[in-house]
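user: At home tonight, take the chain set out below, taking as long as you need, and be ready to discuss the fold:
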Amino acid sequence: MTMMMATMIAAAGCAHAQQSGTTGADGTSADGSLPKVYFFKEITPQNLVRIYEALGREAHGKIAVKLSTGEPGGHNFLQPALIKDLVQKVGGTIVECNTAYGGGRADTRSHLKAAADHGFTAIAPVEIMDAEGETELPVKGGKHLDHDIVGKGFLKYDFTIILSHFKGHAMGGFGGAIKNMSIGIASSHGKAWIHSAGTTTDPNRVWGALPAQDDFLESMAEAAKAVADHCGDNILYISVANKLSVDCDCDSSPADPRMGDIGILASLDPVALDRACTDLVRSSADPGKVHLIERIDSRHGMHTLDHAEALGMGSQKYELVKLD
């Protein structure tokens, strides 16, 4: 059972440093504490900046802000007006990689056009990280993957902010921090590698021979671990749980949301963050939550977190710190 200790602290005192590090079998860190997940119910540009500050880990150097710029035709992705203050505060570059399923972001030119059409190039530089090739990151302890394949451009960044739109996902059940840092940072060949659980890098072959569902979910977690290990302490995770469609921002015709917005959450632990987002969906009084819960459970989506936790990426036990 997830521990949700709703600790109220004033927004003026948000700068509470959160210790990172390996968690024990019970989810606690070396000092015996649970990872903190910070929470603002009100979704505003100002609160997005405040929740970043609450983490107590300052982004430095050349900063990548990984988010989904949204498939053409979609409309639920995080809006530039919402994220502008945070991205500009840290001087970040919005980063993406090309897709593996065709559509309007399968090549760099089309992808940059989509980013421009959706307003992202107006607020910050945008880089498609696999425009000039790809590279491998090792996966430690994986069942299916021994390496991840990411856009080569990722290596030039000193710090990464995983800025995710939490919502449903047709294949993974839900999309949050782990999905954003695994499939999102993978090149188009890397996306095929994850979706096929390490059997092909060919986007033209993967969709006709998908693996068992749990193998795919575990591969997502393994690819995410490769990114987390590469970054070390030079990474943090923020998720905005709004426009809670059962479909991902990679869908050109996503279903309309059936439940109301939840808020902004952030952590230094991606497993705790994703678990907190799903817990808040399940505990919501909104009757429309049944559609998102069905999507998550019908795809066995929580297994992604089980495997990520087993890999040592983080904890499904956490302390929820309410900031408003």
